[in-house]
Amino acid sequence: MLRKAFIYGINTVAETLEHHPGRISQVYYLEESKNPRIKNIINEARHKELTVSKASKDYLEKISTTKKNQGIVAEIIQRHYFNSKTTIHHLQAIDKPLVLILDDLDDPRNIGACIRTANAVGVDMVIVSKNRITIDNPVISKISSGASELTNIAVISNLSQFIDKLKNIGFWVCGTSGTSKVDYKTVNYRDSIAMIMGSEAKGMRQLTTKKCDYIVSIPIHGEVDSLNVSVSCGVLLYEAIRQRESI
Predict the structure, then answer these.
(1) What pLDDT, on the 0 to 100 scale, is given for residue 66?
(2) Model pTM?
(3) Co-location of 33 and 141 in the same domain
(4) Are 68 and 114 in a shared domain?
(5) Coil/strand/helix, residue 170
């Protein structure tokens, strides 16, 4: 049986409609909406022969589980995510892949922001822990502006064992910690590499930390003692892309 879920927000629905219209089974929009962007989405959905329905504010809030749905919600067929075996097979076919591992992150907003950045820079795979977050959380899709529907994502039960599998196929593993003395710009990100972002409160878990070849930090020059995890993720990923594009 196909599993269904809901995504919401103008950007999220528009991106999914553009890139994966086959996954959308129905589009609901606020019956009194005069937003021209919503009208464009509805026209495009009808052009692609998708079912479109007017809905009340209360109904949209019920199916999206939020008042901040921007007046548009789409019912989608949930995709199948990569697992450990299919991820390794996929990455082995790529020359020097770049992987992002989210180690125990549980805030869907931070996860969504990290996935959005990962998609923007062309990360080959995002790894999340099966035990920490439901990746189909609609907040993740909304915050990522639809990137969670467009990015390769693997849901892994045991991150520690999975990291070993990555290392067995030639990956270097780079972790992050605010206490590290290694500046993130000094590490080589040009080869096959997995970059790990730790949880918002505790950072990387001890088991994960032990698997790292490098542990880097981002220098802080102001009064704050750390950056939000999604901001740190963006800094590191864009440094990796900068190095790779300079080859």
Answers:
(1) 87
(2) 0.80
(3) no
(4) no
(5) coil
